[in-house]
Amino acid sequence: MSFFKNKHVIIALIVAPVLAVVTYFAVDGLVKERPHIAQEGQAYPLVAKSNCRFSSGECSLENADFKSTLKVSYDDGLVLFSSSHALQKATIGFLHSDGDESAPTQMIAENASNTMWQTQLPSKTDTQTIARIAVEASGAYYFAETTMGFSEYSTSFDKDFRKSAQ
To answer: I need a surface site. Which of 19, 33, 108, 139 has the fewest CB within 10 A?
Structure first.
C-alpha cells in the first residue's frame, strides 16, 4: 500500500472534499434566483404548504414575505382567508369532485385593514374539491390552487388540540 504513503495522494484526499463543498455553495450563490419585490401588475404563485394536504383545519399559502391562510368553517358555511398584507381584492372559485365548476366569487373584507376576507362556501364542497384563489395586494396579483383536504380538522386522538393551544 505504498499508494497511501504518497504525500500528493494524501493531500488530494483531504483537499478534494473541501473543494467539492466550497464549489457546491459557490455555484448555488451564483445561479440561484434572487428574491425581489413584487412588481405592480405582475402575477405570482402562492405555494401551498404541507398542511394543505392533510386534515389540519387550515391551509398556509406563501410566496416570500407574502403569507396567507385559508380556513373553512362548515358550521357557519364560510371560507375564511387571512393575509399578512392588506388586499384590494380576493376571489375564490371551486372545482367540485363531480367536475362541476362554480363561478369565481368575490370575497368580502371582514376587517378595516383588509387582511381578513370571507365568502359563503358552496353547498356541495367536500375534501376532494379544488379551491382556486386569486388576490390583489399593492397592485400585484397572487394565485393558488389546492384541494380542500385540509378543511376538516381531525386527529388520531379524536381531540381538538387547537382549542387547548390558544
So the answer is: 33
pTM for the full predicted model: 0.73
Q: Could you give phi then psi for residue 101, rounded to 5 degrees?
A: -110, 125
Please, which residues bridge with residue 105 across strands? 92
Cα separation of 7 and 15, whole Å? 12
CB 162 within 8 A of CB 134: no
Distance, CA of 13 to chain centre? 43
CB 144 within 8 A of CB 91: no
Structure-block grid coordinates of residue 109? 373584507
- Strands 108-109, 116-120: pairing kind: antiparallel
